[in-house]
Amino acid sequence: MDIQNTTNQHTINLNTGKPILPNLVNQNQNAQKPLIPLPPFAQDGKNPEASGQESGEQAASGDTGLAAMEASLEQIRTGETILNAALAAEAERAKYQKQEDRAELESTKLRDTENPDEDMANQRILDRKMSELLHWRYDSRLSLEGNFNHIQSIFQSLLNDILSDYKGSLQLQMMAQLDLFTLNAIRILVNQNFQELLDFLGQYGRPNSEEALINGLFENMSSRKPLTSQNGSAAFGGTSQGLAQKGTSQQLTQGLIYQKDAKSRINSQYQTYVGKSERSGTSAAELLQRGGYITGGKAYNLQDVKQAQSFIRYLFQNLPQSNPEKLPYTSEEYLGFSAGMSSLKAQTFIGQTGLSEGTASALKYAMGTFAQEYFFQNGQSLKLTPEFRDKNSCPAYQADSFQKIYRYMMDTYSQKPDAQNAALEGLKKSLEIFYEKQADPANQNVIRYRSDIGFFSHSAVGDIKNELMKGWKAVCKDWNGFLQYAQLSKNKAVKFDYTLSRDYYMAFLMSQEKSSHNGKVKKKRALQFVVRFGILVIGIIVCLFIMALFAP
């Protein structure tokens, strides 16, 4: 075996740092050749088969071969040690390279925080925009739409910055603060322009109607619900209005990322978020979608709110006001018909202007409550009149009589959305009940149901037919004036016709004549009963007198 070549098989290539592997095949082949065993020695160290001289020569030759073999084995062990060290170094280098590649890959996904000057400059811009939104004020030089668009532009700019520069729960917290400031700006806008509508919804609408309107305008602006505590933001790990309010007083005086001092140190609160919040792979859009915040709906829009405000203004300016002096002569049926006409105006206004579902629902609900309040206020005013002191001639209003007419008109319209048809049907129902009460002897002392009192005029009338026609024409004039105010007069289908159809005209007259006839019949029957009762009483008295005369 060539011992000198074994050292060259384990040399290291210094250019690459990798070892040149030995020819393991040749090495294995050499290793498989058996070594020639030494001749056995006698126990006393002498070879009995050789002479003394031969024995000495063989001993010297054996020592030389053993030394050469030991040297070869030592070189092999040295080569293996060098090889193992080189392989370990290569593995360590590969591990380090893998970590370096991974760090480089992650750095492309995260915002570069190694440039504090750039971070502070971006944060100053963000804080300035936040402050502008927080301190937003209505600009009288701009139109209503112009002010709304200004809020929207600031909101959109801030939202883009937050979505691009932040991630995870920190992003959601920033969005909650943005939403709070935007809602406050919208509230200022609404209070500046829609105070009459807010008062009406606050008095007659659902609870928290003002908040619903403001949140609806925000939803229209952003196509999602605001991140506030009222909307269940606990699902976002405490991202709520409370967090946003906390940031109102602190984060604008001290930057979210940097502390506003001479050294511009990194904010410690921000440092606690960097490790977890910004490195979170979950996006705000996912959490908003998962929590049902992304709606895409248009609950309210600015045009809807403007139209609703216009209608409420008309309603209070043209509401049928009962003269206190005539209230004792005003029937519950007339009050029910008047409230029904106001609700029919609201229904027609909603249908013709195409109000969104949210605005329409809020207005319908408020009008229903308003109708009840209209009746209640007239009832309270009646109690203040001098006639009310005599409860027999001027009893309190009965809510059932009012509701019977009002609900009948609303149900008629819901079955057939025709305002004139609902108005005529309601008027016919009102007159029938009114005339029946006039003919009822139980109401002969009630001044509002006296036989000469007119339904519309609330005073004594001589010609019932003329009173009815004048009353209907007044209803038509008021209705068509409402259409003109609401800019709906071009639609001829919703106009009221002054000329009564023959069917309704005859129905009105027949209801009055039928009630009058029934009243005469009832009076005749009452007179007959009195006469018969008198005859019976007289007969009893005569009998008792005769019995007294013949008594012993």
Distance linking N and C termini: 179 Å
- The secondary structure category is mainly alpha
Report the radius of gyration as a whole number of Å: 51 Å
Roughly what is the average pLDDT, rounded to an integer? 75
Please tally the helical runs, counting DSSP H or I stretches of 4 or more residues: 17
Shape, per Cα inertia axes:
elongated
Residue stretches low in confidence (pLDDT < 50, at least 5 long) are 1-51, 107-113, 229-267, 273-281, 517-524
Mind describing the biggest β-sheet? none
Give the total of beta strands: 0
Proportion of beta-strand residues:
under 5%
Helix content: 55-70%
String of helices and strands: HHHHHHHHHHHHHHHHH
Compact summary:
It contains 17 helices and no strands.
Strands, helices and their partners?
Elements: H1 24-32, H2 52-107, H3 116-134, H4 144-165, H5 168-193, H6 195-204, H7 209-222, H8 241-250, H9 268-278, H10 284-290, H11 302-318, H12 332-353, H13 357-382, H14 399-415, H15 419-439, H16 464-485, H17 502-549
What are its keywords?
552 residues; mainly alpha; elongated; single chain; disordered N terminus
Task: Please give a structural write-up.
The protein is built from 17 helices and no strands. The model is unreliable at about 1-50, about 105-115, about 230-265, about 275-280 and about 515-525 (pLDDT under 50). The chain has helices spanning about 25-30, 50-105, 115-135, 145-165, 170-195, 195-205, 210-220, 240-250, 270-280, 285-290, 300-320, 330-355, 355-380, 400-415, 420-440, 465-485, 500-550. The N and C termini lie far apart (about 180 Å). α4 (about 145-165) packs antiparallel against α5 (about 170-195), α5 (about 170-195) crosses α9 and α12 (about 330-355) runs antiparallel to α13 (about 355-380). By secondary structure, it is mainly alpha-helical.
